[in-house]
Amino acid sequence: MEVLTLETPGGGIHAVRRRPETTSAAQSPIVLLHDSLGCVALWRGFPDRLAEASGREVIAYDRLGYGESSPCLGPQPATFVADEANGTFATLRESLALERFVALGHSVGGSMAIEAAGRHADGCEELITVAAQAFLEPRTLAGIREAEAAFAEPDAMRRLARYHGDKAEWVLRSWVDNWHSEAFDDWHLDDALARVRCSTLAIHGQHDEFGSLAQPRRIASRTPGPAAPSLLPCGHVPHRECPEALVAIVAAFLSHP
């Protein structure tokens, strides 16, 4: 495992590279984009499992304001999903000289992966979304409000601070406030999905608390395919709830010629 700090105008970005024991230089690396409360550490053992199963290098990074990356000064802009592709993700790609890559994102990280695949179509070979949001629906907002209420418990905030330190309150408010802002009233990724040119696999938990099956179906129907999403018997966090099944699905998808 290689730990890196990438310098950006906004501050340092924490990144980790994991290489399997045997890999081929011809296989492009997988870049992981985390969810709204996530960071590199919260992928837990998934990157290592994925690297070994796929035979590819796996790169994960903390967005600015999250995990071990520098704090983000001021509130997160309402355009943060679209901004990631030409912001930190672009810096990561340039700094690590990623000519070709696979984008894999979880939850809002999946939404960002869609943006990255479209805006970096010259290099994105495959796109994989896991529990991603393609449009705003009532279930998303209800799930966020329920989670926000749970964070009223001090132990919950202490657990969040374990991963984000003094940035924990900013991380929580960025999630809750942005999704409930007027700017997100009619939010969707239809334009971003239309820019995707690579093979796309939409993975979703059948019991996802934050998004119905309409989410992966829209992603699958508006990208080059497969035409149907891949469903798992879990909730919103497959890499924790059923990591072996998730790794197997991703590895099988990437092994197809």
TrEMBL record:
SUPFAM superfamilies: alpha/beta-Hydrolases. Pfam families: Abhydrolase_6. Keywords: Hydrolase. Coiled coil: none annotated. Residues 30-248 form the AB hydrolase-1 domain. GO terms for molecular function: hydrolase activity. This is Alpha/beta hydrolase.
